[in-house]
Design brief:
The protein has a single domain, classed as 3-Layer(aba) Sandwich (Rossmann fold). The chain is 42% helix and 16% strand. A five-stranded parallel β-sheet has the order 2-1-5-3-4, sandwiched between helices. Helix 5 runs parallel beside helix 8.
Length: 173
């Protein structure tokens, strides 16, 4: 979700005084501690990522099932997990209401995404560690970069049917 359909980076820079999350780490600070301190509203108020609407609309049009598979980044802090889950679910209800709640999966650790992999499932994600785990678990991975979102669409087209009907695959974003 973050970095594919929602613009996490701009929102992070807004709360960090213009510092990227990578630079924040280099300063010895915890990006997750900062964004988690802003509660559900941080997630509810994210903007669309560049190309995010196009990627989501393509998946909804060409795949039988589209799931949102996102990490809360909270570890075992279940109170913060619930806040992130609430914020992300609220964002999706507002901007992607066609995705059923049963198809919204928020995991506490990014490493748990791979548990949802399968040979009929495609993950679109902006972190190679998640793609690698997904592929190792038997799924198909599409490494996404928002500045070149068209490349993700091009890759996804390879997994759609020739007839143009929705494919019997699951796309997870």
């Amino acid at each position: 979700m973050d970095g594919v359909i929602t613009d996490f980076d701009t929102a992070f820079e807004a709360i960090s005084g213009g510092v990227t999350s990578e630079e924040y780490k280099k300063q010895g600070k915890s990006p997750s501690k900062l964004y988690l301190s802003h509660g559900a509203k941080f997630w509810e108020n994210l903007n669309w990522e560049r190309g995010g609407q196009e990627v989501l609309n393509f998946a909804l049009t060409h795949f039988k099932v589209v799931r949102i598979l996102s990490s809360a980044g909270t570890g075992k802090d279940w109170a913060k997990y619930k806040e992130v889950q609430s914020g992300k679910t609220a964002w999706l209800a507002k901007y992607a209401p066609q995705i059923e709640k049963k198809n919204i999966i928020i995991v506490p650790f990014h490493t748990l995404k791979a548990r949802h992999a399968g040979s009929d499932r495609i993950l679109v994600d902006d972190h190679d560690v998640n793609i690698n785990g997904w592929v190792k678990a038997g799924g198909v991975g599409v490494l996404h970069a928002s500045e070149n979102w068209q490349a993700s669409l091009s890759t996804l087209r390879h997994y759609t049917s020739v007839s143009g009907k929705p494919r019997e695959k699951v796309a997870a974003i």
